[in-house]
Write a structure and sequence with these properties.
The complex is a heterotrimer of chains A (about 250), B (about 280) and C (about 250). Chain B is α+β, with helices and mostly antiparallel strands and about 280 residues long. The chains are: A alpha+beta (about 250), B alpha+beta (about 280), C alpha+beta (about 250). At the B-C interface, helix 3 and helix 4 of B face strand 3 and helix 4 of C.
Chain lengths: ~250, ~280, ~250
């Protein structure tokens, strides 16, 4: 019945917490929240809180990309952050979140993986981004994506010793080269209305959602549709327009 | 006795283990425990003092179902002879056929005609066993299936403050916002208003009471808040004469308290044993 | 600041601390609104978040105890939290042991008999680690359990003591933890009982030194205990209560 009530609000142009239809809750980004990580950031959207961290490691490259470093994005929907998440292997929701954010970072070439190569065929840097939820008040996807890119923006190389091993205790001040900052916005369709930054009640009431990532040049670099209701071309176009407008606002928070 | 010391005063927030008082003359109430001459707090809460009796009013914690509580429940299963109701506690309740409605329910009936999974109901707890098996009824004044509106979640220990003395606080909220507000002792509150804007105002006001439940002068502050929120003058409902001047109502006094217009019940109320 | 005692010969404490000095500590309660109770505890560069859910329904049913609720702690370090390489998610044996030790350290103050067949879940996540993690976890969990309104006789304050060459140290940091010469002794203390509910020892310590160390540990634990109490009370007196603007 909450779904019907949410729909009632939405058709009257109101959000469940009184916000304007296409407003985000207050967004804050804090850098360097975990001193041992090579890069880290905390993002709060309203009461939703997510922390992301970056760790670098020296590895051998994959055989089919001998001159490229490796990139991995992992997400944990922790039982700490919501009674709906359980301990154990990642749920499909967590896997989806990680993979969508991974694609945005990878496809936008946020990091030029060739710059991570130390010795072709033998030694490359691998970058691991871990997104961990702290409090779930809706819209973990956008918060996670913003935290991931903020953590990468914050990331520096650890020291590479002469014998080839990594000294994690001495960080350099050489930043991991970020050449794009992809921003993801999830647009929700409820009834005929489009909203962004859903509350948990609104997430449960959605008909469909579209997550879109934009690079600095407003090119779409990743998309993912969710929800059970199909979308028409006009609807998709409208959602992309809204997302693009919102991505500019979010990018300013970095 | 010269050995008696009270370390706290009315409305102090105390934490587990904190020494509240010393001396055999004091009577620790529920949530406080005695070790030798010292009385300690046994959970997080607020102090209320009545002569030699020291009480602890809990401000947090999950809902534990009690006999005679009116709660907002949610139907989670349809059984052979009734329905299973979520109570927002670790224990679910059963609504039996005989307690479901004033009409006669034939055994072969499709029970979902009456209550379907996902329906919210205002019901009353009529039995709690030691193993926390719970029975509820839908027969009684004010008990009904919820048809519209939105659910607000508050901490169950704030409910007495949201209801107020003799229902005065919730009545003030209802009058000011024009909404129907059904408060469950389990901290689930159903708000139904003529328009979403009104519902939102009621939600905001309820949340404010929840946050400031432990602070004095709340009634006056809520009056001012509601006036600013609605742009209309607000009256503090008058309380039946003879009621105490104290603003806050500890949960132990909940049995004397009823929503506006109902009669208190006599007898039959069982509390969990005092420690 | 009081005059520092003449420092013994090298190695002194690497960050300039006195032997009996803890790193800066900080506690905050109610940081995870979704949970029934929550808290953060920081000691130096070690930070623990704790969230409590419960008492709540327990599955699988065979784990239910008809006489009392049970406590279930889960300790986890975020993958990027520590010095050195990334820690793969999933915990492992160390996390399992610490989770069990946390349970034993906290259970003595809890009374779960009023909620049979239920579980109280305590989840710990550490975004930053620099030794003393299980102690920070217990300290944070203790505040979170109180925040969740559970029946608790007292709180539990925990820290990691150290011993080197006859010298007793309070609060071992990461650098000292890696030094094989320093013995590591994590403890958890319950003030109202004047007893310890966690005690481990790694290293070489003569018995007299252990007793001296435990007595110092009590004093230091009381400093942590005060911060725990203040953090719980501070939640109710946030200044902006009186000045919240009306949202239009």
């Amino acid at each position: 019945m909450t779904k019907e009530n949410v729909l009632k609000y939405i058709t009257k142009g109101m959000r469940y917490d009184g916000r304007k239809m296409t407003d985000y809750r207050p967004v804050t980004v804090t850098y360097g929240v975990s001193h041992a990580a090579e890069g880290s950031a905390r993002v709060k959207i309203g009461e939703t809180e997510v922390i992301a961290g970056v760790k670098l490691a020296m590895e051998t490259p994959y055989p089919d990309t001998p001159a490229q470093g490796n990139l991995m994005v992992n997400a944990e929907l922790t039982p700490l952050s919501s009674p709906q998440f359980e301990s154990g292997p990642p749920s499909v929701q967590g896997v989806e979140l990680a993979r969508v954010i991974d694609r945005a970072i990878r496809e936008s070439k946020a990091i030029d993986l060739t710059k991570l190569c130390i010795k072709e065929g033998e030694k490359v840097w691998s970058v691991a981004v871990d997104i961990v939820t702290v409090n779930d008040a809706g819209n973990l996807m956008d918060a996670g994506a913003l935290a991931a890119i903020a953590a990468l923006k914050n990331a520096v190389y650890p020291t590479l010793k002469d014998d080839g091993s990594v000294d994690y205790n001495k960080k350099t001040d050489k930043k991991v080269p970020l050449q794009q900052t992809p921003i993801e916005v999830t647009v929700i369709k409820i009834g005929d209305q489009l909203i962004v930054d859903p509350l948990p009640e609104e997430e449960e009431a959605l008909d469909s959602r579209l997550t879109i990532a934009f690079n600095d040049k407003d090119m779409l670099c990743a998309m993912q549709k969710g929800g059970e209701t199909p979308l028409s071309v006009e609807e998709i176009s409208a959602m992309v327009d809204l997302a693009m407008e919102k991505s500019k606002e979010l990018r300013k928070k970095l | 006795m010269s050995n008696e010391v009270l370390h706290v005063k009315e409305r102090d927030i105390v934490v587990p283990g904190e020494v509240i008082a010393e001396g055999m003359g004091f009577l620790p109430s529920r949530g406080l425990y005695r070790e030798g001459a010292k009385i300690h707090a046994g959970r997080l809460g607020m102090i209320a003092i009545e002569g030699k009796v020291i009480k602890l009013i809990p401000l947090s914690g999950v809902y534990l179902p009690k006999l005679n509580d009116k709660i907002v429940g949610r139907v989670i299963d349809v059984l052979m002879t009734g329905w299973r109701i979520e109570t927002r506690s670790p224990y679910s309740a059963v609504l039996g056929l005989k307690d479901a409605t004033a009409e006669f329910v034939p055994r072969s009936a499709d029970l979902t005609q009456y209550y379907a999974i996902g329906d919210y109901v205002l019901c009353k707890i009529i039995a709690v066993t030691s193993q926390k098996l719970i029975d509820v009824t839908m027969k009684g004044p004010g008990l009904r299936k919820i048809k519209a509106g939105r659910l607000v979640e508050v901490n169950p220990h704030k409910v007495p403050r949201i209801i107020g003395k003799e229902g005065s606080m919730v009545l003030m909220l209802k009058n000011a916002t024009g909404c129907n507000i059904s408060v469950g002792q389990n901290g689930w509150i159903w708000v139904e208003g003529p328009a979403p804007e009104d519902e939102l105002k009621a939600v905001q006001a309820i949340k404010k009471v929840e946050e400031e439940a432990h602070l004095p002068g709340l009634t006056e502050r809520m009056k001012a808040y509601l006036e600013e929120l609605t742009g209309k003058p607000v009256e503090i409902p008058t309380v039946t004469p003879g009621a105490s001047a104290e603003e806050h109502e500890p949960p132990e006094q909940r049995e004397e308290h009823r929503e506006h217009g109902q009669h208190p019940r006599h007898g039959g109320r069982r509390f969990p044993p005092r420690r | 600041m009081a005059a520092k005692a003449v420092k013994q010969e090298y190695p002194k404490r690497q960050d300039g601390r006195d032997w009996e000095e803890m790193r800066p500590i900080e506690g905050k309660v109610g940081i995870i609104p979704r949970a029934d109770g929550s808290a953060m505890f920081r000691i130096g560069h070690t930070v623990a978040y704790a969230a409590v859910y419960g008492p709540r329904d327990l599955f699988p049913k065979f784990m239910q105890n008809p006489e009392t609720g049970i406590l279930r702690c889960r300790y986890n370090m975020m993958p990027f939290s520590g010095h050195g390489e990334r820690v793969r998610p999933g915990g492992g044996r160390r996390s399992q042991e610490i989770s069990m030790l946390m349970n034993k350290a906290l259970l003595p103050v809890l009374d779960l008999k009023e909620s049979p067949n239920t579980v109280v879940d305590v989840f710990i996540e550490l975004p930053e680690t620099d030794a003393g993690t299980r102690c920070a976890a217990i300290t944070a969990a203790s505040m979170a359990l109180a925040d969740a309104g559970l029946a608790m006789k007292d709180m539990v304050a925990s820290l990691s003591m150290g011993h080197y060459n006859g010298k007793i140290m309070a609060d071992i940091d990461g650098y000292e933890d890696c030094d094989v010469g320093i013995s590591d002794i994590p403890v958890a203390y319950i003030p109202s009982l004047d007893k310890f509910s966690l005690l481990q020892l790694d290293g070489e310590v003569p018995k007299e030194d252990l007793i001296k160390l435990l007595n110092l540990a009590k004093k230091k634990a009381m400093e942590i205990y005060k911060v725990q109490q203040q953090a719980l009370k501070a939640k109710f007196f946030a200044e902006d209560h009186q000045h919240k603007k009306v949202k239009q």
